[in-house]
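Q: Could you fold this chain for me?
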Amino acid sequence: MTDLPSSLSNALEAGERAVAVDAAVIAKLTEMAGDFAINLSIAALIFVATLFVSRWASGAARRMLGRVRGFRHDPTVLSFAVQVVRVVVLIMGLIAVLQRLGVQTTSIIAVLGAASLAVGLALQGTLSNVAAGVMLLVLRPYRVGEVIDLNGVAGTVKRLDLFTTTLSNADNHRITVPNAKVLSDVVINLTGQKTRRIEINYTVGYSSDLAQARAVLAAVASLHDKVLEDPAPWTGVTALLDSAVQITLHAWVKVEDWWQTKADLMQAGKEALDEAGIEIPFPHQVAVPYGDAEPEPEPAPRPRKARG
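A: Sure. Below is the predicted structure, expressed as structure tokens.
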């Protein structure tokens, strides 16, 4: 009889202990869920604040650097520096978010160190573009607003980013070129100097007076108000073609006057040669009989019908 009460007492004590353990687990889980919800909410607020701060920091950096002479007259460096400031702020904000969620900074560094090789191999093209962008910023082969030629693609530089260079050609097409490709190709800066040379090739007949033709073309260039006097315009025979003699005209102008002046000199040179009676040959087609064949006679003109 004494065993039954003791058994019941033990069962009640075990039940009480189980209930206490369950209550403690539930309380712990509730506390952890509450803490996680709070941390997640704070992390979300930090992330949103990071976006606003990065935008504000980039704007403030643009305004502050715009007051510096070296940055004010060079939008290439200014836009690049503003992008770097924004990226740095975003990285700092993301690290703060991860720390708030319980990820330790040392763990982040360890993970980044372990994954650096894999990330480098996977993003080697992107990282090479970033490195090339930094090199372009240091070497300065071009600036925003200048006209460049990249392997036959010419356009005005609109923007230099961390990864790409954006151009706009004469047809207003937007051209995006990776920085790594820009750095590896030949870059021709068409407006990097204050002056630029115009080169136009004319052809005259072999029977023409070459000295007169050269003098006519030199006079045309000298009379144009956009052509510079120093260096003076130059003309010379540069090739003996199959059916014509090539005379080249060189004239120096300011960079902004190059296109229109070249078109003006082409038209004025042709008109001046015509006025001077100098032949500008063009291809002719001549029927040559083959072997003993007689050339075909020209057809006789048809008689006109009498009008009734």
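A (continued): The longest strand covers residues 195-204.
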